[in-house]
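Lab manual, section 2.4: Encoding a predicted structure.

Procedure: take the sequence of the chain (353 residues), apply the prediction step described in section 2.3, and record the output as structure tokens. A sample record is shown.
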Amino acid sequence: MKNISEIDANFKIETSLNVKGIRFFDIQSAPFKVYGVFKEGGVYRRMPEKAAAGVSGGVLALHANNAGGRVRFKTDSPYVAVKAVYAGVGKMAHFAISGSAGLDLYFTDNDGKEVYKSTFIPPFDVKEGFEGIADFGCKKMRQITVNMPTYSTLKELYIGLDENSVTAPADDYKIKKPIVYYGSSITQGGCVSRPGNTYQARISRRLNADYINLGFSGNARGEDSMADYIKDLEMSAFVYDYDHNAPSAEHLLNTHERFFKRIREKNPALPVVMMSAPVFLPDDNWSIRREIIKGTYNNAVSAGDKNVYFIDGRELMAAAGNDGTVDNCHPNDLGFYSMAEKLGGVLEKVFAE
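Recorded output:
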């Protein structure tokens, strides 16, 4: 393992944190590993700008929100600081800024489990960026995961560590090929209190699995161009739920099975999980939609597909009941926990087979 001062002796980032001996490092440099996003055109994105533009204006506007982005590394620094520089900040009345624009930190304990440590919360009037620090109180080698904002876009992210600490690459995920999630604002992370509480992040910790979040708030319409982008990704499983964003049951009927078939044609053995909207008390409209999605599943099973799974949205919210949302639509932390419990259990069985 290298002493961190040996990584780049000339690299210095200005900071307002009053911490003696702190040094900041760009997450693009070794030994930091970035997951779920990549840098293109000066910002972090979840898919290439050109591909996003080919889907819709809404997807283009949202594809650089950093939902599912993570940076992982090991260090014995007694603290970990972040310096986030934004290209855009998402703020909404019903969504805590700690979830839409904040970051949070997990570390791996002696039992190998990822444990929540701290949330880096920007001031509400944040525009260009902010800094935050998590203090462990002592030097000890730890594996660190920093989760990026769900509804904001980062231009730069720097990690601040003690200048005398050592760093090393994080361990690879056990499930190296990412689970790819496609869907609505719920998939993107609205309205979680912090990014590590999304259902995808919870499942990642449970299964030790990489993932890519392709949730597009209000703009997941099951487009052919989106299916064509997703089908070419390297992935261990595919999960999709765009029920909430389908403008009508007719639209869902015309797109849902077609979307699945485009994915399946390119990936004949890929586990595919399809879910109806996470609504605990569905009315007739949601029930009609659920049956359309279940119809895609039934047709696949009838055709001999043994790698397709269906989850009823009512089951996704079973642990939360009718208290799992902030606005009768977007899950709160309890709702995301409930979704993770159900979907995580299904995926756990998928990977055990």
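Check your result against the sample. The chain has ten helices and 18 strands.
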